[in-house]
Fold these 4 entries.
Entry 1:
Amino acid sequence: MHASEPLTTKDFFALDVDDKFKVELLGGALALSPSPKPWHGDVGLELRDALKTALGPAFRIYLDLDVEVDEETVVRPDVFVMRSQSHDPDNVAKAPEVLLAIEIMSPGSRTNDRQVKPALYRDAGIPSWRIERSGQRLLLIEIPVLGKDVLHLGQATLKVAGVDVAVDLDTIARYALGE
């Protein structure tokens, strides 16, 4: 295989890649993200807890796992939600099963998190959120499949699969950013 040939998901899953690397397949090209900072992980865990509390056992919330979008795209959202009945512990999630994808933006992932992935998620019919850090504050950008992006600050209540999910960005920021 030559570097100019796009990889398929079959090629991607056949790669022997160290688990400590966050590697994604975006339109047939490999994309490697640097390791995130601790605050990034704390935000992901806090969002997982908020989603799990609001959604209950009918839903599964995953951190940093592969989602197959199409034959040349495998993304790895920081957090994503599926229905429990779609859960198969031995198989990679497929885009139609994903109800929400969340990206927590780090300096090394700005372009992919702001431009590439929102477009991929929209095309796949997946609503998404992007969390951005501004100093000691967190901003949540809600990216619906149709319509305009919505910026949320402080406390917000957002719908996930028809269920209200309360997100307190200020509390999450205080915990994750140590203030």
Note: The helical segments are 9-14, 38-55, 110-123, 169-177.
Entry 2:
Amino acid sequence: MKKNLGVVPGVYPMPVLMVAAYDENGKVNVMNAAWGMICGMDKIALFISEGHKTIQNILKTKAFTVGIADKEHMDVADFFGIATGNKMDDKFERTGYHATKSEFVNAPIVDEFPFVMECELAEVVDTENMYAMVGKIVNAKAEESVLDENGKVNPEKLNALIFDQFQSGYYVSGEKVGKAWNAGAALMK
């Protein structure tokens, strides 16, 4: 029997996304965002309020990167969610991490995270019920260590963090339990 829990943002898993942008002076700012998802083959939507420093930077530069946080870098990924660039001017510098300018968009790539999407700002959706930034993915990069023999990202090697909205925990993805578009094929008969 199910028990009523009230209003719970109960989508699991949630990604742990590292959203990075430059400010008007070329300074790196990074934030941790769990409320984001792919919304097209070349689009990503970030559901983040516009008060964040990183969002204000994206509105100015029209570009950003989205990295996937991994287990090895969980402490800094969490810090990027705790600290705000609106109050901490040296937020990125405190981590000792490194950034490289994307060759495709005017945004930084945080070198330590193993996978990143380089995005141009495509649209801002601002309604009574939602504020979202949609990015057009113009390129993706991955460390060779997380690629399989066919040059594709291997989730078992990526060790991507998953955010748990229920108990505010981090978990790691990776165990393959079936093949998409195949696991339910028997029911098609």
Note: The first strand starts at residue 14 and ends at 15.
Entry 3:
Amino acid sequence: MQDEDASIQNIKKKELLATLGCIVNQKRAAMRKGINTFSYEYDIGNGLLSRLEKGLIDTKITTLWKLANAFGYKCSDFVKLIEDQLPEDFNFYN
């Protein structure tokens, strides 16, 4: 049962990270900024940003906050944007 729960949580985590990455990529592209320029201007490592956009890594709250501010959002509003892109019943534990 625990293995099944861990597997489901891993799938949910991948879905969440892919959604975040897609939003970050779209918002950055809408600003017409390449990864290097965006990274430099907003103090986010370009390798980190690249992996984040591909959904390969999790992010710290400070990076999430920087991204929200870079795109003109309060962090809570940016999280809401991510939440709105996920299935309505998205939850790690069911």
Note: The chain has a mean pLDDT of 94.
Entry 4:
Amino acid sequence: MTKTLAPPAERPEPSLQDIYGQDRIAPPAHMRAESRVDMGDEDISIERYYSKEWHDLEVEKVWRKTWQVACRLEEIPNVGDHIVYEIVHDSLIVVRESEDSVRAYVNSCLHRGTQLRKSGGCIQKLQCPFHGWTWGLDGKLKNIPGDWDFKHVDKAKFNLPEAKVGLWGGFVFVNFDENCESLESYLEILPDHFSEFELEDRYMGMHVAKVMPCNWKLVFEAFAEAYHVPVAHSQTVPYYGDSNTQYDTYEGVRHVNRMISAMGVPSPSRSNINPEKSREAVERDIPFYATGNPLAEGETLRDRIARTARERISNSTRQDTSNLSDAVAVDLIQYTLFPNFVPYGGVGLSVGYRFRPLGDNPEKSIMEFFYYFPKNPDGSHPEPAKMTWLEEDEDWAKATEMGSTAMIVDQDTDNLRRIQRGLRATKKKGTTLANYQESRIRHFHQTLDAYMRKD
């Protein structure tokens, strides 16, 4: 049985909960709670980051057995709209079959295996580009050219194979396993925690993707802890409470974990930071908070950026934000849904990303960043953003729509390249994790190991 632990007494002060105790407007109840389970302290085996054999097992036991985000509903608003979702060798056509139905078909002609669709768009039928075999949006075979020569084919038995489809928060999820658990069960605590964040009332405002020089799991790990921030992102220490971060794992919860980092407070790794220098630093890196005005007497940086955020969110969404908590307005509220989806809580701009293997290469991966903007009060919104694909040797900073996030990700990308190479060079059989600050990584790998052991 999993043992529940108290937060470590040795962690730097103030704790996140101490900070919340001083906020002018308190956060939601689930953000005022802490949860930590004992997962041991064993090293994580390193072959999982580069072994082709391990990669092949992941395909069978993880990628073909878990729920994964394929797209947003607003990306396929009309009947016939579709995207192509690919993971290693598997490919799905995720299509709006009708106004109220989304389906996911295996992207392969049942005649001789030709890929039916290479990219998204809008169609009224699924037709093979090689010989013209045609299926309807309902997946039923409609036409076989020269059907006189295929008397042995029963059209009623030639429906396109499907993956499972589930919807949550405006996202379309897919699962290749016809015997999988329901999406509702798989999401565990996520819907309850996100109930006030209203992800279904947002639209894709930015989408940027790039090939990363490392295994997909290393991408997850780089963004799952703030322990590396004072060294890797030293420009943020005047305003980012890295060592104040709270890490939550939950008893009996397999797929979800969380971390919350406070904004507007300096890192405990630096002492005696001048508040005005902190204000200048956060306004330099995050123009959303910029006012150009010095802090007033008695005003803290956290007070300032929370008030500025409430005002600007209200102006952009035309909603009353006067009771919006400081934490929801400004903090980094990051969740992971195993295996590869990371949504952030909050209002105004919300962030998300996903990562997945690059084909059969266990030492490269694909990472995608999303920004979700609030829809208009009447539910309308601009066209969802088209994906910007960066070249592998291009910096994330080339995607100017990412703002200051790009600098952070470029810094992490450089380190991820070094980590992947270092794991090949090491004579050590495993990586060693901190018990608290890297607990989300351990939780992730214990869930991964459980899937890898399944028959």
Note: The mean pLDDT is 95.
